[in-house]
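Quick question: what would this complex look like in 3D?
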Amino acid sequence: MKKELVKLIDLSRCTACRGCQVACKQWNELPAKRTKNFGSYQNPPDLQWNTWTLIRFQEHEKKNGKVNWLFRKDGCMHCTDAACIKVCPTGALYHTEFGSVSMHADKCIGCKACITACPFSVPKYNADTNKIAKCDLCYTRLQVNQPPACVLSCPTGALQIGAKDAMIKKAYARAEELGGDANVYGDKFVDGTHVVYILPERADVYEHLPVDPKVPLEIIIWKDVLKPAGLLAAGAVVAGCFLHYITHGPKTPDDETTCEGGNKS
Amino acid sequence: MTNHYIDMKNSDCILIMGSNAAENHPIAFKWILRAKDRGAKIIHVDPRYTRTSARCDYHVPLRSGTDIAFLGGMIKHIIDNNMIQEEYVKYYTNASQIVNPDYSFKDGLFSGYDAEKRSYKKDTWTTMKDAAGIPIRDYTLQDPQCVYQMLKKHYERYTLDKVSSITGVSKEDLLQVYNEYGATGAKDKAGTECYALGWTHHTVGSQNIRAMSIIQLLLGNMGVCGGGINALRGEPNVQGSTDHAILYNILPGYLKMPSGPVDTLAKYIEKYTSKSTDPQSVNWYQNYPKYTVSFLKAMWGDKATAENEFGYSWLPKLDDGKHHSILHTQDAMYAGKIKGFFAYGSNVAVSSPNSTKVRRGLEKLKWMVNVNIFDNETASFWKAPGVDSNAIDTEVFLLPAAASMEKEGSQSNSGRLVQWRYKAANPPGDAWADGDITMKIMDTLRELYKKEGGAFPEQILNLKWDYRDALGKFDALKVSKQINGHYTQDLTITDPVTGAKEENKKSETVPTFAKLMADGSTSSGNWLMSGSFDQKGLNKMAKRGKEDPTGLGLFAEWAYAWPLNRRIIYNRASCDLEGKPYNPKMKLLEWTGEKWVGDVPDGPAPPLANKEKGKLPFIMKADGVGSLFGPGMVEGPFPEHYEPLEGPLSKNLMSGQLLNPAVKVFKSDLDKVANADSKYPYVCTTYSCTEHWCSGFTRWQPWLLEMMPEAYLEISDKLAASLGIKNGDQIKVASIRGEVKCVAMVTKRLVPFQIDGKTVHEVGMPFNYGWRFPEGASDASANYLTPSIGCANTFCPEYKAFMVNVSKA
Amino acid sequence: MKIGMIKATGPFERVVHWCVALSCLLLCFTGMGMMYHSLNGLGTMVGGMANLKTIHNFGGIFFAISLVFTIGMWWKEAGLFSFPEDWQWIIAGGGYLWHVENMPEVGKYNPGQKMFFLVVALFGAIMVASGLIIWFPFSFAVSLVRMMYVLHALGFVIIFAFFFVHLYLVTIGAPGSAPAMFTGWVTKAWVKKQHPKWLKEMEEDGTLVVYGEEKCSKKGRC
């Protein structure tokens, strides 16, 4: 039986200690890269093939002039209607029994289609292996009933994982408790993500967070319209030709003009 | 901590001041957020808006080094608005005691000041006692000479206007904090304070904490669930380091380090044993001789006998009045007075203030031993950028050490919880555990003393020195048992109350420090830890029980908390005179009429309502009560605001004394000062970030380095704009002592202050960086900027307030 | 070669035609191997999907070069319609679908062929451009790359469908056409039937090459 899990990220409890960022690298054996301080606590600057989860730091000036420092743990949202799975040519990306989006690395051919398709800009390309990489919600840990490394590392309880329904319920209860602009992000689009945020601020306040993420229209046209259309059109043409052949017949050159030796004279 | 980490969840108001709890104590924040869930107010008062501020209800920016002004204003506000917990103040503090009429305070100076010595004679800082030696009290608190009235008088000057003008905090913000925190004066409310290096790293460090202690006593917040004064210690085992005396001026268990003139055990005991004739005072330190003799027995075993004063003469003695803090040591080193130096697990070239002075001092050593898990700026000081290696004769030994997870032992957290920790992996390569390194050095020394005699071999050769396991390795368990203590002979103890006799066998571990003796029949390396084993030798530090029947988070079966597994000290102060808890919802302790139930109480005596047997709650104090008037400090019984060594003001707005009058000022040519100097117009503070360890051995950890790769200066957008600095620019930060280059982090999180009518900017920089690693890193140690000065009581350096200039590099 | 056959194509023309045709086919099938999971087996045949992608990518470069020659070679003859006869032909459906009394005479390429050429030229170029952008997505805006996926798929649908029409017509739909692609020689009867105007033009211009006649190329082999 399918046991859908949801990782709940309560940003109102996140202290940006980045334990999750390190725990992720440790469990998944992802190397560090040399970085520069670019005037922010945030580093690396973005998700990378070797950084599957990243705490984003953002200074947000509220209407009353007070500054709010927003932290957001970025990473794969594990969509139900996952654009990456939709576009993956080889089936390297797939849904696990937990609803999360995992990846058979051996199947990945580095086509980068998922990078383009993902509404959250999550998959990242590793030129050395010619493969993409992203969070798989610690599938190997989930399989043995262990929480993902990030959840395990979180000291404040900003991260938790559990049955989808229970987590969504919890999320709404917490958002209500927080009041104000607090809201739940994740359950309402792409048929529900398996990572759900409790955002203390409105979604449009957060940088790099799409307010209304969806599988891009182009991807839908490609995969849901043109992909079947390709077969349909070719099939229709073949059928039409056959029909033409048996009803109208071929356009054959006239016999009398194909006079052998006629040109000899 | 008087309380413990989990207890923070029980608080109604948490004032985080002098700490960046979320960044530097991430686990503490778990419990702080639990309190927030319960509806507690979380307030952050700090020069910078940090990751802590982001999770608090609100942040109040305050100029570095003005905490006492802020807290003094709160004391005044609490008294003026009668927000105190009256019964508590009357009976559990010295508010009612009468102050010596010769005591005075005038224009920033207390009575007894010797300007030449920069120190006080404290003989007038006393309270009056009657003929029987019992303190004279006025429970109405109306006597103008009573502590309460004197306190009120002292803080009369700390008006909102003045405090705001000094601290830069707006009056509205001051009032909001004062009112919200003051509300915990209600009997069933508790407020707690979390501090860390933001309070200790000042010339008035100890007095910052004293000021808060006064507030906590006024509000009845000491000894209660969700209350207390909580030092969030910066390292997992820094509590253990002070408990076991890695300081020059104490012996294990906070016993005093003897000085030269105290040349006999009798004199030592006479000098330091606390005396009280008050029948209501437990006066726990009357047991001082027992702890002293047991400690000496632990040092020298059978060689310590009554005849030789248990080896007291073998203890090293401080020269009278001399100090040997890191500041004094480095001053002496720079003066060329020190030959050899053990930088054991430390990186003074980065971590000590005034790096130039520190590094020049290292050059004058004959030898230095650095014990560390990585090479560092201290071990490699002789090849630092700009240093001429040929001109340096110092011989440096770098001994590779095991990391904390590569050795077994106890670890004491801030909540005095001592947890046993097992070894997870073997140390790599030639690295040894500290214990093994120490044993090896001592073995060699003993051999040499045995062979060559030397000036004073007894103290070395007579040492009890049997801490090896079967394989000849350092055995942490053996040491821990030695610290806990044991009976050195078969001993019959008669209970003074019941008369019951108890037979104890030689070598059995002592189950509590209450059984320690002053006659040499017991041995204990640290009386506080006596009780960490039971009599059968069970290691209580390794206990992992998860039961919490009180629901208060005491978890009494999880490891061991000193003293005697007491989770909240002075816990009897949580109950009224009848022994009923002030907050019935949080029954930390309750007197049933026969005994206390709940946490391990501060002694079995009944509450104060029992006129014959009742005891006062603050058992470590000679008078049994909390000290609003606290003569223990060197700079005065009431905390007073003084400006840091370097600040933007040329005059203290509170008094004629600009600098703490009792602070030690170092005078070498490298101890330059630039106060209120237009060349260095900005206040600077330094700190550690979540990602790095103090002096930065975490820079060798690629994941951590990736997150925080290099030194930066946090600078407000307003100041940056006026200096033409853009986010990410390379900039130069200079104090009169040195300069560093780093990255500008332009932020809205820092705001300018209005100080004495003028705009004052503050900038901040982490002290985790140095040139040694990563390869190619700039020599951006923040301590090139800081001054060599420290707290007048502890000499903890002033890292938090000094003046700099900032410019584009 | 039978005497009297007419030369329809030159060797260069045939090579180019084969290049573009084969690479197009290769791209169609390797592309389909990636587009349809059920056809992932095509990847297995070449040692894995990664190889399939490599073949597709570099096959695309080959196709692009072939396409350049194709267009350069044919755009004048097959890229331009001549009115009004082409229009009439189109209205008449080329006489393929129903009986038409007075079909306009067709030149070297009928409007159907011209249309196929134009589709191949246009969509071929689109396929090359979109394919390159998809190949190197990081050099372009994500929104552009996403549109390229649509174009690439659309181009496939159209080219693939047209390809079958083309295949049918040159094989069993209009017998006698195929030799133009293989040997270059077709029967006069076929030319008369399919491209009578072209025949007349060649005869008038004297460019008609008939196998076995004097008027052969100077190289001596016809």
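Answer marked as accepted. Confidence is low (pLDDT under 50) at residues 216-222 of chain C.
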